[in-house]
Write a structure and sequence with these properties.
Blueprint: H1 13-30, H2 36-43, H3 47-71, H4 77-97, H5 101-128, H6 135-164, H7 166-187, H8 200-207, H9 210-230, H10 233-241, H11 248-272, H12 274-295, H13 299-315, H14 317-327, H15 332-360, H16 367-394, H17 401-410
Helix pairs in contact: 1-5, 1-6, 1-7, 2-3, 3-5, 3-15, 4-5, 4-7, 5-6, 5-15, 6-7, 6-11, 6-14, 9-12, 9-14, 9-15, 9-16, 11-12, 11-13, 11-14, 12-13, 12-14, 12-16, 14-15
Length: 411
C-alpha cells in the first residue's frame, strides 16, 4: 500500500511564529530612537548619553550573536529559540524596571544578546520548513517581522512613550515577547533526528572557509551604505532638502513600506537565481544611493528615493543571508548568527562613515555618495565570490574521482 505524500503548505504557520519573534526584537532595537528625550529627562542624563543605549545594543548583538550561538549550539533549535525569547522578554522587563541609566544599559545589552542568535538560528529553522526552491522566501518572511516593526512597532512604541512614559513601551514589548514565546513553543516543530550537533571548533573551521568569509564581508560592506544614510536621514531631509521637522516621520513611513516590498521581492528573486539576485540587488542599492544625491534637491524626488532606498536596502537581506548559509554547509547556525552580527557591524561602520563625511568632509549632501562607494565595495566582493564559484565549477571536471569531494568542499 502506497502512502500519499501530504504537500507542505506554501507558508507554514511556524514561519509566522518566527515572524512574531522578529517583530518584537525589531521593535525593541529601534524604538529607543523615539524615546531618547523621555529617557534622558527621566534618568537625568544628556541626550548624547541616552543615544549610547543604541550603540550598546548594537555592540551586544555583534558580540553576543556568535557567543550565544556557541553556548546554545547543542540545544535543539526549537528549545534555543524559546530560550532566546525568554531572555528577550526578561531583558525588556528589566528595561521597564530600570532605576537608573547604568541598569538600563545593562538590561539593553542583555536583551541584545538574544537578537543575533534568534535571527541566526531562526533563519536556519525557516529554511528547513519549506522546499528547496523557497528558502530565500522563508528567510524574507521571517524578516518581515523586522520590517513591520520599523513601519508600525517603532511609531507605536514612541506614541506609548510620549503619552504613558518610556517604561510603558518596554512593558508592551515584553508583552510581545510573551506572545512570541508561546506561539514559537506551540507552532515551531521539534528538530528532526537527522541533524547532529556540530562541535564549536568544527563550526569555526567552516566560518574560516574563504567563501563564507567573503559572504560575511559582503554583508558588512554591502549594508553599511544603508546606515550611512539612514542614521542621518532626519538632518539630511531637513537641512539638504528643506523639509520641516514634522514632515520627517511621515516620510519614514514611506521608507518602512519600501522595506517590506524590498524584503519580499529579494526573497522571491533569490529563490529563482541566488547569485544574480545578490549581485543585482547590491548594484541597485549602489545606484539608488548615488542617484539620491541628486534627488535630495527636490522634495517629491527625495520622498520617492527614500522609498526606493527601503526597497533596495532590504532586497539584499535574504540573498546575503542565504548566500552565507549556502556556503556554510555543516555549520549553518553559527555562520547565520555571524552574518546577523555582520549586518550590525555594517550598521555601525555606516553610521561612523556618515558622521565622518558630515563633520570632516563635504557635509550632509555628500553622505549618499560615500554610502554608494562603500556599497560598491561590497558588490566587488560579491563579484569576486561569483568568480571563485565559476573557477570551482570547472575544477571537478579535471580532477580525479577521489579529488572531487575536496574540490566541492573547498567551494
Amino acid at each position: 500500500m502506497t502512502r500519499t505524500a501530504v504537500p507542505r503548505p506554501r507558508t507554514p504557520l511556524a514561519l509566522y511564529a518566527l515572524t512574531a519573534g522578529a517583530f518584537g526584537i525589531g521593535t525593541t532595537e529601534f524604538v529607543i530612537m523615539g524615546l531618547l528625550l523621555q529617557v534622558a529627562s527621566d534618568l537625568h542624563v544628556t541626550i548624547a548619553t541616552a543615544g549610547l543605549l543604541i550603540s550598546g545594543y548594537a555592540l551586544g548583538v555583534f558580540v553576543g550573536a556568535p557567543l550565544l550561538t556557541a553556548a546554545t549550539g547543542r540545544l535543539p533549535r526549537k528549545t534555543a529559540l524559546v530560550a532566546l525569547m525568554v531572555i528577550f522578554t526578561f531583558g525588556n522587563l528589566a528595561c521597564a524596571l530600570a532605576p537608573d541609566y547604568t541598569t538600563l544599559m545593562i538590561a539593553r545589552v542583555i536583551t541584545s544578546l538574544a537578537h543575533g542568535t534568534f535571527f541566526g538560528v531562526g533563519a536556519v529553522v525557516a529554511t528547513g520548513l519549506v522546499a528547496a526552491d523557497r528558502k530565500a522566501s522563508a528567510i524574507s518572511t521571517m524578516f518581515t517581522g523586522l520590517t513591520v516593526a520599523t513601519l508600525l512597532g517603532v511609531p507605536a512604541g514612541a506614541w506609548l512613550g510620549l503619552h504613558f512614559g518610556w517604561r510603558a513601551t518596554f512593558w508592551a514589548v515584553a508583552g510581545i515577547g510573551v506572545v512570541a514565546t508561546i506561539v514559537i513553543a506551540a507552532l515551531v516543530p521539534r528538530d528532526r533526528g537527522d541533524t547532529q550537533p556540530v562541535a564549536f571548533r568544527d563550526e569555526l573551521r567552516i566560518i574560516a572557509r574563504p567563501q563564507v568569509l567573503l559572504g560575511l564581508l559582503t554583508t558588512v560592506l554591502g549594508f553599511a551604505g544603508v546606515f550611512a544614510v539612514f542614521t542621518y536621514i532626519q538632518p539630511i531631509l531637513t537641512r539638504v532638502t528643506g523639509f520641516e521637522d514634522g514632515a520627517v516621520s511621515p516620510i519614514l513611513l514611506v521608507f518602512g513600506v519600501g522595506l517590506i516590498v524590498g524584503n519580499l521581492l529579494g526573497g522571491r528573486l533569490a529563490d529563482r537565481r541566488l547569485m544574480p539576485t545578490l549581485l543585482g540587488t547590491l548594484a541597485a542599492l549602489a545606484v539608488v544611493l548615488a542617484a539620491m544625491g541628486f534627488a535630495l534637491h527636490s522634495k517629491p524626488a527625495a520622498i520617492a528615493f527614500v522609498g526606493l532606498l527601503g526597497v533596495a536596502a532590504f532586497a539584499t537581506v535574504a540573498p546575503l543571508q542565504l548566500r552565507v548559509l549556502q556556503k556554510a554547509a555543516g555549520g549553518q547556525s553559527l555562520a547565520s548568527s555571524f552574518n546577523i552580527a555582520a549586518f550590525n557591524l555594517g550598521n555601525a561602520i555606516g553610521a561612523w562613515l556618515g558622521g565622518v563625511v558630515i563633520e570632516r568632509g563635504p557635509g550632509y549632501g555628500a553622505v549618499t555618495w560615500a554610502a554608494a562607494l562603500v556599497t560598491l565595495s561590497g558588490l566587488g566582493l560579491a563579484l569576486w565570490s561569483a568568480m571563485l564559484d565559476r573557477r570551482a565549477a570547472g575544477r571537478p571536471a579535471l580532477a580525479r574521482p577521489g579529488e572531487r569531494v575536496l574540490c566541492e568542499a573547498s567551494a
